[in-house]
Amino acid sequence: MRWSKSFLPTLRDDPSDAEAVSHKLLLRAGFMRQLMAGVYTLLPMGYRVAQKITEIVRHEMNELGGQEFKLPTLHPREIWDKSGRWDVMGQEMFRFEDRRGSDVGLGMTAEEIFAHLASELRSYKQMPQIWYQIHTKYRDEARPKSGLLRVREFTMKDSYSLDIEEEGLDYAFDQHFKAYRKIFKRIGFEPVAVEASSGAMGGSQSVEFMLRSDAGEDWIAACEACGYAANVEKATSAIPAVNDAGPDALEKFATPGVRTIADLETFEGGAPGFKQIKTLVYMIDTKPVLLLLRGDDSLSEQKLIDTVEAEEMRPATPEEVKAALGALPGSLGAVGVSEHFIIADESLRGHTKMTTGANEDDFHLRGVSVERDIDVKAWLDLREVKDGEACVQCGKALSVYKTIEVGHIFKLGTKYSEAMGANVLDQNGKARPIIMGSYGIGIERSLAAVVETCNDENGIVWPVNVAPFEVVITVVKPKNVECMEVGERIYDALIGFGIDVLLDDRDERPGVKFKDADLIGFPYRLTVGPKGIADGKVELRTRRDGETDDLDIDRAAETIMETVLAERR
Ligand SMILES: [Zn+2]
């Protein structure tokens, strides 16, 4: 392709409304344009990258024995009603009425449709199957943001495994896990695999592939030493050894004006955060329940929801707290409380010489021994993991950071096959529901994730595998006949070798051309200029490290071809 004939609108400055690096760079470098909130057009450069990512995903799915479908994006309400998700999806799903008055939804995922199709399968002999599609999905995100990272219309590869035995599902899940690792490596980044709760999908086991990025919204705790990784909603850490000093006898003391953990830390005769007991009151199925944590820990509400079975839970109002304990938040404690259920975080076990509220405004207790003085009914892991705490598996420091979800694999079980009546006969002629797994990768989000990972102060640095063009030939003086002739000759030769090459034949200053090439991020730039030609040379520059190499004009195309092929994966 020739640059002079291309639509490649680069911008001089960062767009003012973009925050995420990928958002800024993809707009500036002419890869995409916003049409409306959360809806983007991929321009030719962007679409080339998306197609390369798609091909990598397709290749790895076919390696698994996957069969590609193309499902409609218009879904009738009836099929979503069968699984109950027409209601569950709420406003996340785009929906409208057609001219006959029938409810129609825009596909956001395809468990229902594939399970419906699977009802045509008859026998265990047809198992296992892997079905997939790479197609447009719609989600009416409440807060679309960060460019391609959180959008309302996007392309997703979603695959579904169909099995009759649990072991078959385990195998398909494992195969997808391995394929995903390969896919992301080939695209150009390596996310962390995190066990996750499966949310609205239903099912038992799920793993999310999370890529570290400041543009992300999901916090994870991960250990670089041993590979432990978990969403902070589930993550835990090793509990430090008990090392208690201070008075041992229970003693009430006046703390006028002290209302918070921080107040008590600075109060004369107070205690550091880790020597305090934080007392929270939650209404769990309308009853007040006391939750105890170390003063320097925070409650993970999700852990409470995951471990305590209840119809309803919420923090108690100040009035409910006062009614339950006789004091207002700021002076609460569990010592001597027997009429309410008390749950303590595991990290408090064995601790003595602690300080806590006395259930009397402006008074605290010191010398508290948790197990001696408090009637703990349940010990649970309730605290939120903090950066630098010790890993439960190996003891090294955990890092807590923001991530983008780039892939997700679920064990669905039989929820959808039962809803759609997708059964097959087993070896004994008995009808059994098909066991399903579901596996997703967002194409545009992966594209943005590469940019989040591969960039520098001059622009994007595409890995060869997904670069819009692998090589740009920058003809410094296109009006110079000899320059243009050499540029064209190498260009034609590279096309002959199957290399993706762009010829920058624009009548622009060399500085502008070099800047654009760096911004867009072609892995290799070949500079063809009159000075070099006089010596029989052209200059190959690697975008990644800025290294340059003078090549003989006659050998240039072959050398570039060898260099590029060595990097394709
Ligand atoms: Zn570890």
Query: What is the CATH superfamily label of the largest domain?
Result: Bira Bifunctional Protein, Domain 2
CATH architecture descriptor of the largest domain: 2-Layer Sandwich
Task: Give the end-to-end Cα distance, rounded to a whole number of Å.
Answer: 23 Å
CATH topology of the largest domain: BirA Bifunctional Protein, domain 2
Strand content is 25-35%
Question: Count of DSSP E strands?
Answer: 31
Under CATH at level 1, the class of the largest domain stands as Alpha Beta
Q: How much helical structure, as a percent, in the residues? A: 25-40%
Largest sheet: 9 strands, mixed
Shape: globular
Please, could you describe this protein's structure?
With 569 residues, this protein is of the alpha+beta class. The chain folds into 3 domains: 46-216 and 403-451, BirA Bifunctional Protein, domain 2 (2-Layer Sandwich); 251-380, YbaK protein (Alpha-Beta Complex), CATH 3.90.960; 469-567, Anticodon-binding domain (Rossmann fold). It contains 16 helices and 31 strands. Strands 3, 7, 8, 9, 10, 11, 12, 21 and 24 form a 9-stranded mixed beta sheet that branches. A 5-stranded mixed beta sheet has the order 16-14-15-17-20. Strand 14 and strand 15 (287-294) form a beta hairpin. The two termini are 23 Å apart. The model is unreliable at 198-203 (pLDDT under 50). Zinc ion (ZN) is lined by residues 223, 225-226, 228, 391, 393-394, 396. The site of zinc ion has 8 residues, from loops.
